[in-house]
Amino acid sequence: MPRRPLVACVAAVCTALAALAWSLDTAATPPSQAPDERALATADEPAVATATAGAPASATQRTTPPNAQTAATHAASPGDVELVVHVAQGTWPLAGAVVQLFPLRARFGEERAWMEIARGERSAQQIARTDKDGDVRFPGPLEHGAIAWVDGTTVWRSVDAVTQRSARCEIVLGPASVHGIAYDAHGSPRCGVVIHASGDTYVGKQTWIEREHSVAVTDADGTFALGGLPSEIVDVSCAEADGLPREARKVLATALRPGFVQFGVAPGSCWWRGRVVDANGAVVPGFTTLRFDDLEHGERRAVLSAVDGTFATQLPASMWRGQVDHGGAARTTTASATAGLGGRDHVEDLQFPGHHVLCRLATAHAAIQPWFAEMELVLDRDGVRAVNRPPFEWNGARWMAWRGLDAGVYRLRGGHRLRCLGEPDGGFSLDLCTAPRLEFEVVLTDH
Question: Residues 69, 114: contact at Cβ < 8 Å?
Answer without folding.
Answer: no
